[in-house]
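Exercise: predict the fold of this chain.
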Amino acid sequence: MTLISFRDIHKSYGPEVVFHNLNAQIHPRQRVGFVGPNGSGKTTLFRLITGQTYPDMGEINRTRDLKISYLAQEPELDLNRTVLEEMHEGLVDILSMHNRLEILSHELGTLSGDRLNAAMKEYDRLCHQFEIEGGYSYETRVKSTLAGLGLPQELFEEKISALSGGQRSRLSLAKILIADADLLLLDEPTNHLDLQATQWLEKFLLNCEKAVLLISHDRFLLDAVAERILELDGKRARSWRGNYSCYIDTKATLRLQLERQHQKRLEFVTHELDFIARNKDKEGMRKTARGRKTRLLRMLKENPDYLDKPTDQKTIQFSFSDAKVQSDIICRAQGLYKAFGPIVLFEDLSFDLYRGSFLGITGPNGTGKSTLLKMALGQMRPDQGSIRLGKNLRIGYLDQHATVLDPEATVLQEATRIRPDLTPEQLRGKLGTFLFSGEDVFKKTGNLSGGQQNRLILFRLVLSEPDVLVLDEPTNHLDIPSREMLEEALDGFNGAVIAVSHDRYFLDRLADQLMVVGCDEFGDKQMGRCEIICPIENKGVWSTYTELLQKRRQTAAEEKQKKSAAQSRPDKVRVTAPPELKRFNRFTVEQIETMIAELEGKIARMQERFGSDEVYRSAEKLAALQTDFEAAKVERELLYRAWDFRSQ
């Protein structure tokens, strides 16, 4: 069964061709990662699926009654609703059933005869459907999804208009995830998510029974979730089995095969042309040479791409110049303390960063990562202690909000501001390596996309020839090829790097120290706590940190199990209890205490009866009371022994 199929799709916007003869299929419950450079058409393909745009040629076939839930990059929310009201809006069918069930439950007591039978049948049918569609747990799902994506309970009754941009994005994602749908279209779902929320999303998608199409530059997420990669490149789509790492390995192998094939074809054509040139005028060989020339020309005409060389998508190419720093210590923090009102970000934080080191900083949103960078740069003062960079260092700073750019300045003017010693022609040549060519260099930076702004800031960093790089979310807005080029450049940089990032792949590849800000020992949010992780052999810092968390959680679970076992030790003692006490094993210590109290009262009442005329004057009643009294005392002794035994 196929949910959606694309057949020979052609799509253009004016002279720009996005797709040409594109073919692809999406199947139920598949988790597919969409990859391709920025501008390759990933979002356009989503819009074709939802019917927001149409192909110029070709066919799109959808299975009947297909329900689609689409997360666009710009959230579409009703600002006048509360958070919970907006979440409920995505569960219209379930809430409608719930309301109908309530109406029917009230009507059942007032109906009779055929009308009662009909109402009961409808009630039973709706109850069954309500249960199948998770109606009895929808409120729990709503709240757990919001919490998992980092929206705490105190925001549930807040108006959406009061939320930040990041909170609105997370709410939009939560609404999409719980919607009744066969297919989830997620366009960059980890934007505005911290690591904890991203990891929660991974688990959700892995357990999701819906088909998932995922556009993401998060390579860790694609590795964890995707079971197929759909690559958009060269105006066509190609499907690859496995996750992102499998796709990279398979593609590299195929690339090598294509390069060898191209070399063989080139050698074949060269050999044929050489044969034709040597024999076209030779007696007895002219006919053979003409025949081979005819066949060669026919083959090249029928296969116009026969000699095309395998090419990679154009991406940025750059490297950093060597740092000229002389001092060993690049950054030093001593007894650092910073708070905003009652919220403590850092408390008694001390560390040193040495020449050639790469410090990665990560943690939940709002825990002070960017604040730490600003204090190191001298843009903000700590409340106590100190943090400072070494003297006479050339600092290259990348701000995730692009505030270092003048929105009214052109791309070329921004470049000139950094290196006024270079001519416009020299700067334009260098800008070309960052994909700024032609009229692009005269665009105002305020009109650039987020990805273009980040590329320009990276270009400024390279031009400044820094000794130290201070990077705040450097991979934001960069597509995967551009991220990989940045990683190559940073890997070859001999200066020091301090980088705040949520990109686990980036951190794992480059950082030799990881500072985790605002997390407890198990990775849950805890303001004010910092921890520095160093990688173990053959592992990156993020993989090391993940393994450390798993060990801590396992140890904590084992300790909890031991404690629980110790608390329930009486259950184990029952096996070795004396035979006369075994009948008390089914009672708790508290129950035995109650039994003792009741028996003490009974014995006291027996003692009073010994003095009554009724018992005193009847030998038979006196003997019976005496027997019961002795039995009660024996029982009391056993209860006390049982209590003492169980209380040890």
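Check your answer against the key: The longest strand covers residues 329-340.
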